[in-house]
Automatic annotation (TrEMBL):
Gene3D superfamilies xrefs: 2.40.50.100, Chloramphenicol acetyltransferase-like domain, E3-binding domain
Domain of life: Bacteria
Occurrences of domain Lipoyl-binding (ranges): 2-76, 114-188
Name used for this protein in its record: Dihydrolipoyllysine-residue succinyltransferase component of 2-oxoglutarate dehydrogenase complex
One of the GO biological process terms: L-lysine catabolic process to acetyl-CoA via saccharopine
Function, in words: E2 component of the 2-oxoglutarate dehydrogenase (OGDH) complex which catalyzes the second step in the conversion of 2-oxoglutarate to succinyl-CoA and CO(2).
Species, as recorded: Chitinophaga fulva
Length: 520
């Protein structure tokens, strides 16, 4: 019985996923609950497990984008595990005898006959390819995995390899345009191996020994070292133009030399391609689901809100002095550093409760207010920007906030955030100051109505009590949806945050900051 393994529902708002990596190969025998592949949604990465044991048949390739419910692979549950385990057992004596090892590839009679070599799927948006060059001739006996021809899509050049050993019959000609799944050639796997087939294979091994004598002229161009990878076309140009492949830096996958790399070397004969030189290379990469989601939501925020930004600046003198005074004892007590994020989160929570419209959002023709503060913290993760949420931040003390920030940031860097951890925030704080930003206009994280932007702390001359003094200052910005938040409320909210940050001992901790910080 063949069962279909479909993309599961992974979140209310998730409609599609991308196959990031297959952990099993086509034809593998898999056990129930074994991990088959890794999938990436717009918010998180998760694994797809086998529902039953059996033989795996992959239906979607790495990089393919699938909708929820699409078939990723199938499993033939009728295939028994012991049969699969028996195959390696028979392979053991084969490894002991060299003569038997040579006959091993011919053992499976299932593959005997004529097989069709079809154009494989090479990318989600690629529908056709061009056959650039045959590297084997009609009637040649080819070995399994030998390169048969070079195919070129609109984005890349790749090779078609023989699936089995046998006699080759060409179906398509050089220059033909083939659709994905079209037959390029056929291989008669029942044809006997020619008696003289081994002789040409030994010749290249002997040739480098002869070529060693005229090292100065022929060695670099008559043979290509095994550690240098080239496409067939590039190899032909190298041989024809007598270019030393060691001077060429390949631009293909894993450093493979492409034909354009060879032509570039010919145009700059005095400069080794491996050397630094002016480059006009371009490269294209498929956007990840996360990057597409970030792009879509940012544009949506700009197009659907009446977004405006108001600014203020905070004198960080008192916070920095308070932090310097208590950070060591704070870490000893709570086993976490006392950072700036806890001060800003605490100040925002107080201000959000004082100005509830900043903590609300529009739902159709209704305004939804929150009596709690679920504060989203923008974090730069390896795959893009993520915004995990600190739940009920208003009820947490400084240590609780710092621990929550550390935990969420660590999960973000390790790509382990779950979808619930990134949904449902009521207000967002983003800190561009860690990257050196002096001032910015952050974009609202919809459906929220406001976002606070922190920035770089910089010493600046300030007028204090009629004197010019140097103070550590930070610009803060509040971007807000003017449809729900009036100018008076937005400015008052930001001023309130500024006041609490500049007087942290009185406004955040009362008269005894040590007791508040350490919960004594």
């Amino acid at each position: 019985m063949v069962i279909e393994i479909k993309v599961p529902t992974v979140g209310e708002s998730i409609s599609e996923v991308t196959i990031a990596k297959w952990l099993k190969k086509d034809g593998d025998y898999v056990q129930q609950d074994e991990v088959l592949c890794e999938m990436e949604s717009e918010k998180a990465t998760f694994e797809l497990n086998a529902e039953k044991a059996g033989i795996l048949k992959i239906a979607a390739q790495e990089g393919a984008t699938l909708k929820i419910g699409d078939v990723a692979c199938t499993i033939d549950t009728a295939a028994a595990a012991p049969a699969q385990e028996a195959a390696p057992a028979t392979a053991a004596p084969v490894a002991a005898a060299p003569a038997a090892a040579a006959e091993a590839p011919a053992a499976p009679a299932v593959n005997k006959g004529v097989i069709e070599m079809k154009v494989p799927t090479v990318g989600e948006s690629i529908s056709e390819v061009t056959l650039v060059k045959w590297t084997k001739k009609e009637g040649d006996y080819v070995e399994r995995d030998e390169v048969l021809c070079e195919l070129e899509s609109e984005k890349a050049t790749f090779e078609l390899n023989a699936e089995e050993a046998g006699v080759l019959t060409l179906v398509a000609k050089e220059g033909d345009t083939l659709k994905i799944g079209d037959v390029a050639c056929k291989i008669d796997t029942s044809a006997p191996r020619p008696a003289g087939k081994a002789a040409p294979a030994a010749a290249p091994a002997a040739q480098p020994a002869k070529a060693a004598a005229p090292q100065a002229q022929q060695a670099p161009v008559t043979s290509i070292p095994n550690d240098i990878r080239t496409t067939p076309v590039a190899a032909a140009v190298i041989a024809d133009k007598q270019v030393d492949p060691a001077t060429i830096k390949g631009s293909g996958a894993h450093g493979k030399i492409m034909k354009d790399d060879v032509y570039a070397a010919l145009q700059n004969p005095g400069v080794a391609i491996g050397q630094e030189m002016f480059s006009r290379n371009e490269r294209r990469e498929k956007m990840s689901n996360l990057r597409k989601t970030v792009s879509r939501r940012l544009v949506e925020a700009k197009n659907t809100t009446a977004m405006l930004t108001t600014f203020n600046e905070v004198d960080m003198t008192n916070i920095m002095a308070l932090r310097a005074k208590y950070k060591d004892i704070f870490k000893k007590q709570h086993e976490v550093n006392l950072g700036f994020m806890s001060f800003f989160t605490k100040a925002c929570c107080f201000a959000l409760q004082e100005f509830p419209s900043v903590n609300a959002y529009i739902d159709g023709e209704e305004l939804v207010y929150h009596d709690y503060c679920d504060v989203s913290i923008a974090v730069s993760a390896p795959k893009g920007l993520v915004v995990p949420v600190i739940r009920n931040a208003e009820s947490l003390d400084m240590a609780g906030i710092e621990k929550a920030v550390l935990e969420l940031a660590t999960k973000a860097r390790e790509n382990k955030l779950t979808i619930p951890e990134m949904t449902g925030g009521t207000f967002t704080i983003t800190n561009g100051g860690v990257f050196g930003s002096l001032m910015s206009t952050p974009i609202i994280n919809i459906p929220q109505s406001a976002i606070l932007g922190m920035h770089k702390i910089q010493d600046r001359p300030m007028a204090v009590n009629g004197q010019v003094v140097i103070r550590p200052m930070m610009y803060i910005a509040l971007s807000y949806d003017h449809r729900i938040i009036d100018g008076r409320e937005s400015v008052s909210f930001l001023v309130r945050v500024k006041e609490m940050l500049e007087n942290p001992e009185q406004l955040l901790f009362g008269k005894d900051p040590l007791k508040a910080l350490l919960k004594l």
